[in-house]
Amino acid sequence: MKFNTHVILISAQAVPNITPLLDDLVKPKQVIMLVSADMQQRADWLEAVIKTKGIKTQRWAINNAWDIEHIREQVLDLLSIHQDDSIALNATGGTKPMSIAAYEVFRDLGKPIFYVHPEHDRLIWMHPANQPAHELADRIKLPEFFKAYGATVISQGDKHGVSADYRELTEDIIQRVNYYAKPLRALNYYAAQAERTMAINIDDKDLNNDSLQDLITVFERLQLLKLHGNTLTFADEPSRFYVNGGWLEQHVYGLCLNLKKSHGIQDIGRSIEVQRSHRSPPIKNEMDVAFLKDNRLYVIECKTHADKHQAESKSTNALYKLDSLKDLLGGLQARAMLVSFNSPSAHDLQRAGDLGIAICAKQDLIQLPEKLATWIA
């Protein structure tokens, strides 16, 4: 069923409001947003996306989002103006009183009502209830998705595939995860210290470490760095970044690209930097890998750890970052995963479980392709 006008209830969850507007089979010509005072900014964000799709927008004020009688009167006034229009209610958003009041008015007047199932990305008709459910098209891309949550993509890594040489490099490291764990921590430290000069002297103790020498050789094969005497020199800044953990990000990104067609991933990006400008100064956030499937955001943080002298895991900070990002930029249905070259502590594992964040670390990285497939299925 298709209607010229959708009435939507603005709330903190943008996805259920926007996905029906991007599906050609149910896309309206106009959207009327029921907006309470505290949701004006959310309406601004949503409106910025809707207008790019050629859909007209209108706002209808709700002075008290918790007063059912007030909301009912406001919706009645709205429908009295649009009584002859082809109009339907998306009852997914808003406060519960908003949803209940709008539902009752539309039902009493015989107007159609639908609901977007948050888990299955499916449009379900509540009235008339005999209409079949509709699987919503996966049209939204990452920049539009983030814009609906008040964030703008200001930069991201290239979207090209990963070359065979680089896949071979990362597979070599992953397959020998136990052997390379300690030397990788040392190499990360040196790469971090060489950020400005692209060169650094290696300690004699590390210089005589066979596993570190082997790891340096792995990166030397692709001319990312060169060891001359005790001086380690990086080819350029992208090479230094790659050695300092970027390789794991690229590895995870490549695995996700492999799953794109077989698992219905609608958009994917890496090294994504977004800016949220609704605060002063603007807040910037970075995501190593992010993708959309069934209009749901998946965020992955990749950690190899940069300090060779640090005994404690940095996973705790990464977990809090992931929890914050998935809520701010993806809403209630967003999912997050921490991919780490080092083993998380028992505390980190418990914290991840409490926050609903998946973890793939150390030896489990060998099974990461299977774990990703299961995670997004």
Provide a brief overview of the structure.
The chain is α/β, with parallel strands linked by helices and 377 residues long. The protein has helices spanning 15-22, 40-51, 68-81, 96-108, 142-148, 164-175, 177-193, 204-207, 210-220, 237-259, 315-330, 346-355, 368-376; strands at residues 5-9, 30-36, 56-62, 87-90, 113-117, 122-127, 134-135, 152-155, 199-201, 225-228, 231-234, 265-276, 283-293, 296-303, 335-340, 358-361. It is built from 13 helices and 16 strands.
Q: Key features?
A:
377 residues, alpha/beta, Rossmann fold, Trna Endonuclease, Chain: A, domain 1, 2 domains, 7-stranded mixed beta sheet, 6-stranded mixed beta sheet, 13 helices
Topology at a glance:
Layout: E1 5-9, H1 15-22, E2 30-36, H2 40-51, E3 56-62, H3 68-81, E4 87-90, H4 96-108, E5 113-117, E6 122-127, E7 134-135, H5 142-148, E8 152-155, H6 164-175, H7 177-193, E9 199-201, H8 204-207, H9 210-220, E10 225-228, E11 231-234, H10 237-259, E12 265-276, E13 283-293, E14 296-303, H11 315-330, E15 335-340, H12 346-355, E16 358-361, H13 368-376
Parallel strand pairs: 1-2, 1-4, 2-3, 4-5, 14-15, 15-16
Antiparallel strand pairs: 5-6, 6-7, 8-12, 9-11, 10-11, 12-13, 13-14
